[in-house]
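Example A, followed by Example B.
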Amino acid sequence: MANKTIGFVFCIIILFVLYNTFRVGFYPDSPITAINKNDILEKLQSSSKNITFLTSDNDYLYYITEFDKGNGMERIIELMENNGYTYQTQEGAGLFFIKDDNQIIISTEMWTKKYMIFKIPSSF
Protein backbone atom coordinates (compact mmCIF):
# COMPACT_ATOMS: atom_id res chain seq x y z
CA MET A 1 0.00 0.00 0.00
CA ALA A 2 2.82 2.41 0.88
CA ASN A 3 4.55 1.73 -2.44
CA LYS A 4 1.36 2.60 -4.35
CA THR A 5 1.00 5.85 -2.42
CA ILE A 6 4.63 6.80 -3.06
CA GLY A 7 4.23 5.93 -6.73
CA PHE A 8 1.04 8.00 -6.98
CA VAL A 9 2.67 11.04 -5.31
CA PHE A 10 5.70 10.68 -7.56
CA CYS A 11 3.45 10.60 -10.68
CA ILE A 12 1.62 13.74 -9.51
CA ILE A 13 4.93 15.56 -8.99
CA ILE A 14 6.16 14.52 -12.45
CA LEU A 15 2.90 15.67 -14.06
CA PHE A 16 3.12 19.03 -12.27
CA VAL A 17 6.73 19.55 -13.43
CA LEU A 18 5.87 18.60 -17.01
CA TYR A 19 2.82 20.87 -17.04
CA ASN A 20 4.85 23.87 -15.89
CA THR A 21 7.67 23.07 -18.30
CA PHE A 22 5.36 22.92 -21.31
CA ARG A 23 3.34 25.94 -20.21
CA VAL A 24 6.23 28.43 -19.84
CA GLY A 25 9.40 26.40 -20.13
CA PHE A 26 10.01 27.01 -23.81
CA TYR A 27 10.26 30.76 -23.40
CA PRO A 28 13.59 32.35 -22.50
CA ASP A 29 13.98 34.46 -19.40
CA SER A 30 12.70 38.00 -19.64
CA PRO A 31 15.26 40.49 -20.93
CA ILE A 32 13.58 43.12 -18.72
CA THR A 33 14.51 43.05 -15.03
CA ALA A 34 11.20 44.65 -13.98
CA ILE A 35 9.03 41.77 -15.27
CA ASN A 36 9.42 37.99 -15.47
CA LYS A 37 8.49 35.72 -18.36
CA ASN A 38 5.34 34.43 -16.64
CA ASP A 39 4.01 37.98 -16.30
CA ILE A 40 4.89 38.70 -19.94
CA LEU A 41 2.96 35.63 -21.08
CA GLU A 42 0.00 36.57 -18.88
CA LYS A 43 -0.12 40.08 -20.36
CA LEU A 44 0.07 38.67 -23.89
CA GLN A 45 -2.77 36.23 -23.21
CA SER A 46 -5.01 38.84 -21.61
CA SER A 47 -4.42 41.55 -24.23
CA SER A 48 -6.53 41.97 -27.33
CA LYS A 49 -4.21 44.66 -28.74
CA ASN A 50 -1.64 44.02 -31.42
CA ILE A 51 1.01 45.83 -29.34
CA THR A 52 0.98 45.40 -25.56
CA PHE A 53 2.47 47.56 -22.80
CA LEU A 54 4.55 45.40 -20.47
CA THR A 55 6.10 47.60 -17.81
CA SER A 56 8.21 50.68 -17.19
CA ASP A 57 11.13 51.77 -15.08
CA ASN A 58 12.64 55.20 -14.44
CA ASP A 59 14.08 55.48 -17.93
CA TYR A 60 12.08 53.27 -20.30
CA LEU A 61 8.67 51.95 -21.33
CA TYR A 62 8.54 48.37 -22.62
CA TYR A 63 6.11 47.06 -25.22
CA ILE A 64 5.76 43.68 -26.92
CA THR A 65 4.21 42.53 -30.18
CA GLU A 66 4.28 39.52 -32.45
CA PHE A 67 7.02 39.75 -35.05
CA ASP A 68 4.60 38.48 -37.71
CA LYS A 69 6.96 38.59 -40.71
CA GLY A 70 8.13 42.12 -39.94
CA ASN A 71 4.71 43.58 -39.15
CA GLY A 72 5.87 44.11 -35.57
CA MET A 73 8.06 46.98 -36.74
CA GLU A 74 5.08 48.54 -38.48
CA ARG A 75 3.10 48.39 -35.23
CA ILE A 76 5.68 50.33 -33.23
CA ILE A 77 6.06 52.87 -36.04
CA GLU A 78 2.28 53.34 -36.05
CA LEU A 79 2.24 53.76 -32.24
CA MET A 80 4.92 56.43 -32.42
CA GLU A 81 3.31 58.25 -35.35
CA ASN A 82 0.03 58.31 -33.40
CA ASN A 83 2.00 60.15 -30.69
CA GLY A 84 3.30 62.77 -33.11
CA TYR A 85 6.68 61.26 -33.98
CA THR A 86 8.01 60.81 -37.50
CA TYR A 87 9.89 57.65 -38.35
CA GLN A 88 13.34 58.39 -39.77
CA THR A 89 15.34 55.21 -40.18
CA GLN A 90 16.45 51.90 -38.71
CA GLU A 91 20.06 51.19 -37.84
CA GLY A 92 20.62 47.69 -36.53
CA ALA A 93 18.22 47.14 -33.64
CA GLY A 94 17.51 50.88 -33.26
CA LEU A 95 14.52 52.74 -34.68
CA PHE A 96 14.99 56.51 -34.99
CA PHE A 97 12.08 58.93 -34.58
CA ILE A 98 11.86 62.71 -34.42
CA LYS A 99 9.31 65.16 -33.04
CA ASP A 100 9.89 68.91 -32.75
CA ASP A 101 13.66 68.52 -33.22
CA ASN A 102 13.72 65.91 -30.45
CA GLN A 103 15.12 62.60 -31.68
CA ILE A 104 14.56 59.37 -29.78
CA ILE A 105 15.87 55.89 -30.43
CA ILE A 106 13.78 52.82 -29.72
CA SER A 107 15.71 49.61 -29.11
CA THR A 108 14.23 46.41 -30.49
CA GLU A 109 14.92 42.89 -29.34
CA MET A 110 13.62 39.55 -30.51
CA TRP A 111 12.48 37.78 -27.34
CA THR A 112 11.58 34.59 -29.17
CA LYS A 113 11.14 33.76 -32.83
CA LYS A 114 7.58 35.01 -32.41
CA TYR A 115 7.80 38.13 -30.21
CA MET A 116 9.64 41.47 -30.33
CA ILE A 117 10.19 43.73 -27.33
CA PHE A 118 10.55 47.49 -27.74
CA LYS A 119 12.39 49.71 -25.26
CA ILE A 120 11.15 53.30 -25.55
CA PRO A 121 12.69 56.21 -23.64
CA SER A 122 10.18 57.33 -21.01
CA SER A 123 10.58 60.94 -22.17
CA PHE A 124 8.53 60.16 -25.27
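Example B, a separate protein, is given below in the same form.
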Amino acid sequence: MSTAAEITENSTSKMIIMPTNYRRKGNCSRATWTEVMLKMAMQAVRSGNMGVNEASREFKVPYTTLRRRLVRGDTKKKSLGSPSVLGLENERKIVEGCLTVGITCTFSW
Protein backbone atom coordinates (compact mmCIF):
# COMPACT_ATOMS: atom_id res chain seq x y z
CA MET A 1 0.00 0.00 0.00
CA SER A 2 1.39 3.39 -0.87
CA THR A 3 0.22 6.59 0.75
CA ALA A 4 1.54 10.07 0.11
CA ALA A 5 1.35 13.03 2.45
CA GLU A 6 -1.15 15.71 1.49
CA ILE A 7 0.07 19.23 0.86
CA THR A 8 -2.21 22.15 1.65
CA GLU A 9 -1.46 25.80 1.07
CA ASN A 10 -2.62 28.77 3.05
CA SER A 11 -1.73 32.43 2.68
CA THR A 12 1.58 32.20 4.56
CA SER A 13 3.09 28.75 4.08
CA LYS A 14 2.69 25.20 2.87
CA MET A 15 1.65 22.59 5.37
CA ILE A 16 2.05 18.85 4.89
CA ILE A 17 -0.49 16.61 6.59
CA MET A 18 0.76 13.12 7.36
CA PRO A 19 -1.62 10.22 6.74
CA THR A 20 -2.61 9.15 10.26
CA ASN A 21 -6.00 7.54 9.65
CA TYR A 22 -5.80 4.00 8.33
CA ARG A 23 -8.76 2.69 6.33
CA ARG A 24 -9.28 -1.04 5.88
CA LYS A 25 -9.48 -2.35 2.36
CA GLY A 26 -12.61 -4.12 1.22
CA ASN A 27 -16.14 -3.90 2.51
CA CYS A 28 -15.56 -5.45 5.92
CA SER A 29 -17.51 -3.51 8.54
CA ARG A 30 -15.88 -3.39 11.95
CA ALA A 31 -16.90 -1.48 15.05
CA THR A 32 -20.11 -0.17 13.49
CA TRP A 33 -21.88 -0.16 16.88
CA THR A 34 -22.10 2.96 19.03
CA GLU A 35 -21.58 3.52 22.74
CA VAL A 36 -25.34 4.10 23.10
CA MET A 37 -26.09 0.72 21.51
CA LEU A 38 -23.53 -0.95 23.80
CA LYS A 39 -24.97 0.69 26.94
CA MET A 40 -28.52 -0.34 25.98
CA ALA A 41 -27.39 -3.93 25.36
CA MET A 42 -25.51 -4.04 28.65
CA GLN A 43 -28.53 -2.67 30.52
CA ALA A 44 -30.83 -5.26 28.90
CA VAL A 45 -28.52 -8.10 29.95
CA ARG A 46 -27.94 -6.79 33.48
CA SER A 47 -31.67 -6.26 34.07
CA GLY A 48 -32.34 -9.85 33.03
CA ASN A 49 -34.63 -8.89 30.14
CA MET A 50 -32.31 -10.50 27.55
CA GLY A 51 -29.42 -12.89 27.37
CA VAL A 52 -26.08 -11.83 25.92
CA ASN A 53 -26.75 -13.55 22.58
CA GLU A 54 -30.19 -11.95 22.15
CA ALA A 55 -28.95 -8.49 23.18
CA SER A 56 -26.04 -8.84 20.78
CA ARG A 57 -28.40 -9.46 17.86
CA GLU A 58 -30.98 -6.87 18.95
CA PHE A 59 -28.54 -3.99 19.47
CA LYS A 60 -26.06 -5.03 16.74
CA VAL A 61 -23.07 -5.28 19.08
CA PRO A 62 -20.75 -8.27 18.50
CA TYR A 63 -21.31 -11.06 21.03
CA THR A 64 -17.67 -11.20 22.16
CA THR A 65 -17.48 -7.43 22.53
CA LEU A 66 -20.65 -7.35 24.62
CA ARG A 67 -19.45 -10.18 26.89
CA ARG A 68 -16.02 -8.61 27.36
CA ARG A 69 -17.51 -5.19 28.14
CA LEU A 70 -19.98 -6.70 30.63
CA VAL A 71 -17.11 -8.34 32.53
CA ARG A 72 -14.90 -5.24 32.47
CA GLY A 73 -17.71 -2.73 32.92
CA ASP A 74 -16.17 -0.63 30.14
CA THR A 75 -18.49 1.29 27.80
CA LYS A 76 -15.98 3.68 26.17
CA LYS A 77 -15.47 2.97 22.47
CA LYS A 78 -11.79 3.06 21.55
CA SER A 79 -10.16 3.53 18.16
CA LEU A 80 -9.10 0.52 16.13
CA GLY A 81 -5.42 -0.22 15.68
CA SER A 82 -2.38 0.99 17.51
CA PRO A 83 -1.69 4.68 18.15
CA SER A 84 0.83 6.66 16.13
CA VAL A 85 4.38 5.91 17.21
CA LEU A 86 5.71 9.44 16.80
CA GLY A 87 2.63 11.48 17.66
CA LEU A 88 1.29 14.44 15.70
CA GLU A 89 3.68 17.02 17.17
CA ASN A 90 6.80 15.00 16.32
CA GLU A 91 5.50 14.28 12.81
CA ARG A 92 4.96 18.02 12.31
CA LYS A 93 8.54 18.75 13.43
CA ILE A 94 9.95 16.16 11.01
CA VAL A 95 7.97 17.65 8.13
CA GLU A 96 9.12 21.16 9.01
CA GLY A 97 12.72 19.94 9.13
CA CYS A 98 12.36 18.29 5.72
CA LEU A 99 10.92 21.47 4.25
CA THR A 100 13.73 23.54 5.78
CA VAL A 101 16.43 21.51 4.02
CA GLY A 102 14.37 21.14 0.83
CA ILE A 103 13.47 17.45 1.03
CA THR A 104 10.18 16.44 -0.55
CA CYS A 105 8.08 14.67 2.09
CA THR A 106 6.45 11.74 0.30
CA PHE A 107 6.05 8.58 2.30
CA SER A 108 5.34 5.06 1.09
CA TRP A 109 4.70 2.25 3.49
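On Example B: Strands lie at 6-9, 14-17.
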